[in-house]
Amino acid sequence: MPTIDLMGGKLQLCQKPSSRFWQARTSIDGTQRQFSTKRESLDQASKVAEDWYVTLHAKFRAGVLETGPTFKKAADQFLKEYGVITEGERSEKWTESHAIRLRVHLVPFFGPLPINKVTPGKVQEYRVHRMTSYKEPNPESKSLHKPKSKPPARSTLHDEIVTLRMVLKTAIRHGWLEYLPDLSPPYKSQGKIVHRPWFSPEEYKQLYEAARAYARQPFHEHYKWNAEQVYDFVLFMANTGLRPDEAFNLQFRDVTVVEDDKGEEILEIEVRGKRGVGHCKSMPRAAEVYKRLLNREKPVKGESRRERQLRKKEGGEAPPVPEKEWPKPTDLIFPGNHIKLFNNLLDRTKLKLDRDGKPRTAYSLRHTYICMRLMEGADIYQIAKNCRTSVEMIEKHYAIHLKNTLDVSAINVVKPKSKSKRTNKSRAKSQPAAEEDLSL
Fold first, then answer.
1. Domain 201-299+325-405 is in which class?
2. pLDDT 10s digits, 268-313
3. Which has the closest alpha carbon to 302: 317, 320, 315, 314?
4. Which residues sit opposite 123 in a β-bridge?
5. Residue 340 · residue 173 · CB < 8 Å
6. What are the structural domain ranges in the chain?
7. Cβ atoms within 10 Å, residue 395
8. 57 neighbors 41 (Cβ within 8 angstroms)
9. What angle do CA 222, 227, 228 make, to 5 degrees?
10. Pseudo-torsion of CA 333, 339, 343, 349, nearest 10°?
């Protein structure tokens, strides 16, 4: 790593192999400080570094030089701790997303700032910066994508503030910060509550009828097994309320067919997903679907068309017919996500988008299950337990837009009129008539 001395050896310029920019460093008051010049040219980097050095010493003589651990130090400490502490509890992608937000957005803005200078006003400046600089290329980003054409979404900024809050909490634990500043948006109004995409009863019927028709007569014969799986997946999800990842983790040994209090067969499912291990009891229709999946022959890979052509060309013998295989207890119930077939099914039925323009996915089948149970008058607390979620989430995202959850008898209440008011009105009506009789 080449190093160049400036200002009589009190200032150094160096260039790391992983960066194209020159870095400046100096020692002041017993603390070494580093600064990126953001310049590739040595002459330009020297001028920027000298200006930084002079400004730094002027602040030190004036007594206004900010000291203490920087935000970058707290961010490095957070990344070192978070992956180890949450190993096995958080996905690797979620942990990596924190590192990406810090590297691309948060550290370039807050990096050299002392951690105690991250105030609510500075956080608001960050929000404004993110909303106004999205069209400019970001030198910290490793992607080759063009700058965005629209500002970051509310959820994107929310995730970045969550990462910022975690870094500040790390600084508090290490004694670098006394208290957590207020990070809430100062001008935030009450957010609009919108429902999640689901299938109404009419749309759901249209969907499963189209899936059944395609399963009976697919476009190609070798699509038949996949088409049947998609049909059963639609029915299974809408009658159990599982999350897609929970359904894809499900094995045959995790499901048991039992009888409920009414004597109907239902499924008792041991669910493994984002909330750990939970339990679910299905609707009766799911038991039929599970039996069909259990008795469906597994697809066995035979000789491909290319292999057959090569074999005939070389004069080889035909391979033996593969033996039939049936699902084992340790096999996945849905070994593939069939996302293309499912999306093609939504496109053919024109159900991909709801009336608000939101795309429907496999998650929409879970939303359909919850909404239909509420429409049938099921207890919201029992639905929350069966779906491994909270009553608050169901009330916020599902129950708020269903007309069936409104009790008309409790809304259209009319207070009965008192007896004295009725007698007074009847007397008032009869009084003019009496006056007329007197005048006659």
1. mainly alpha
2. 999 987 767 889 999 999 999 999 999 998 887 766 777 778 877 7
3. 320
4. none
5. no
6. 3-62, 71-173, 201-299+325-405
7. 15
8. no
9. 110
10. -20
